[in-house]
Amino acid sequence: MNGERGGLRTVTLTASDGARAEVATHGAHVLSWQAAGDARERLFLSERTELRAGVAIRGGIPVIFPQFATSGPLPRHGFARTLPWTLVDAGATDGGRTRATLRLGHTEVTQAIWPHRFVAELTVTIGGATLEVALAVTNADAAPLSFTAALHTYLRVADVARAALHGLRGLRYRDSTAGGAERVDRDDALTVPGEVDRIYLDVPTALELRDAGAPALTVDMDGFRDVVVWNPGAERAAALSDLELGGWSRFLCVEAAVVAEPVVLAPGAHWRGAQTLTAR
Ligand SMILES: O=P(O)(O)OC[C@H]1O[C@@H](O)[C@H](O)[C@@H](O)[C@@H]1O
After folding, report:
1. How far apart are CA 234 and CA 55, in angstroms?
2. Does the pTM exceed 0.80?
3. Is the CB of 69 inside a 6 Å radius of any atom of ligand 1?
């Protein structure tokens, strides 16, 4: 079902079991998700975010492509999150779930700053307790292309100070709050005492977010090797003009990512990465 939110066109997906998600064509951005039989909103969306063409949305699931953060010459986090995508398919799947696919290809605008021909597709599938978001990229050029990417998922929590992310113990991470210093996580669970900005490398297992105010949520990755965990903390959040007062305490970003080693695609080659959230 097509609609509008702010100044953006949206597609609302409703599965037969009542699961629901809203996706803006701008950025192929998932704005909202509710699991079947549970009215709780699972994603955080800032009350102060702008919803208009060309502007990055604070919350939901920004699609980061073809550059993570400032790791290259492109605008921070690439251009996919601020460009219009095209809805190419929506409807029920054979398994009784509901899905929508949006596409972004090269244009004069992208080629002016990133001289590659590509097709990116984002497929959002809901049903039961899960939301699956899959990013697929095809190199439509005669030369190899390389990119980094992430699904910058803002998971809603009641209070980030009482939330804990399990499954990272023993893994290496780059600490972006310490100039990218590499460390090994020795904690039973990641908690958020202040700013957290880490790139975990080669994450082999599912993660579980436990939040004192809501049932747990698991995050599964397929094709994405890394996981970025980010929360600005109170001090840095104060400088984010698109985040409401105290908003930082109501989310933890857990981002399926491919950052440490860029994906390199030969001409005609294809890559796919997916993140599945499951409400417990
Ligand atoms: O404010 P932006 O551009 O949406 O980025 C938010 C954050 O995104 C995270 O992925 C990065 O690790 C952080 O360093 C960054 O601050």
Report:
1. 23
2. yes
3. yes
